[in-house]
Amino acid sequence: EIEYAFSSDLMSDVLTQDNDKLLLLTGLANLQAIRTAEMSDIGNIVFVRNKHIDEAMVDLAKSNGMLILECPSSLFKASGLLYEAGVKPLY
User: Which residue from 4, 8, 56, 86 has the least number of CB within 10 angstroms?
Assistant: First the structure.
C-alpha cells in the first residue's frame, strides 16, 4: 500500500526519510539505490527516465521483498501523475 511518494536522485536525501508507506521515484538506477531504500525501509521504487533494471538489481530487490518498476516518464512527470492519482507528497 502506497500513501506517500518521495522523488530524489540524491541517496543522502533518501536516507533521511522514515515512512513505511513510501514510494521512491529516482533516476539513479543501480544497486546503491536499492541498498539505500532498504536502509530506509522503503519497499517500492520506480526508476524513471527510461532507466533499466538489471538482473542484479532484481535479485537484490527480491531478497529484500521490494517492488521495483521502470517508467519512461521524467521524474517531474511521474511525480505529477502520482500526485494527480492521490498519492501524497512527504512535504
Answer: 86
